[in-house]
Amino acid sequence: MKSRAIILAFPLTLFPTGGRAQSTPPPLSKTEILGRMALSEPSSYVGHLVKIRGIAFQINQDFLHRVRLAGGAGILIERLSAASAALSTRFQPDPPIDHLTQCAEAQHLGDSERAATECRASIEENSQSPWPILAAIDAAVHVENDSDFPDAEKLKLMRRAVALAPDVAETHASLAKLLSNEKERLSEFAQAHSLDEPDAINARPSAGPMLIHGFVPSGRSQADYTDPHYEEKLDAKFQNLLAIDPDIAATHMYLAHRSYVHQDITNSLIECRTALRLEPDNPDLHAITAEYYESNSDFTGQISELREAVRLAPFNSYLRQLLVHLLE
């Protein structure tokens, strides 16, 4: 199995970006919600955005079904329903989102090949939104052979995405990753950082040690290792996030990690269960919770959580391997 050190490092990747929003972002559209889910953004984080920004459309059961297909059961569904009930304005219908729905669902299931195909198709389905472009380029990273999607085409599309949404941090960060010119790349990362929300914790649960948006170091930087108050500062950041919005799963997974560090496995599992209540269809959270059950010598709970992770993401070979090794 993957070492516990890597699995338990997950919460440390969930840093606020520390940027400052330059203007009030508009309410979320259907396309942005499904686009963010296609990018594997945690559903409770998307729910946080719904809470602070609102939505620009009336909810119906069809859209809620699409959100559930993408793994959005839990607090996101609750927040969408509450936001819709508060609306009194009629909005124009969104562009088609059929391919984007399929893209988000395939990403959730771990079906990389299908996700790449559907995400590419969603670009033409909704040519005036940056989110299908972001999803398509991200999905291409996870397929073994994306030679039919050359870097030059990706770069052209990302420049188009930035032109469509110059005030969206994700467009600048994604463009930066494709640039070879160091000065341009750093400029785009700086622009993304300045646009991102101060309390954003936009990180992927399955990421492990990675760069959030490509410009904020996850885990400890070199300076962090020499800072004797690093842990206290990190705890303060997450306590602040908890006060801002107690319904973000990543915060509770961080608290689970901190309890584990202090050898309080019982409280670790309580925090994990809170996170899973907020994101019940998140396979990565189930896999991490399985690690805490292992720490508590509860192998029945560990197997149960890994089975649920595989059920939710049947095409995710890594989760399958974890379960196979455990059963062996």
Overview of the structural elements:
By secondary structure, the protein is an all-alpha fold. The chain has a domain at 222-327: Alpha Horseshoe (Serine Threonine Protein Phosphatase 5, Tetratricopeptide repeat). The protein is built from 18 helices and two strands. It has helices at residues 4-8, 30-38, 43-53, 61-69, 75-85, 98-109, 112-125, 131-140, 151-164, 169-178, 182-195, 222-225, 230-244, 249-261, 265-278, 283-295, 299-312, 317-327, and strands at 211-212, 216-217. It has a two-stranded antiparallel ribbon with strand order 1-2. The longest helix has 15 residues, at 230-244. It starts with a helix and ends with a helix. Mean pLDDT is 82; it is low at 1-22 and 198-222.
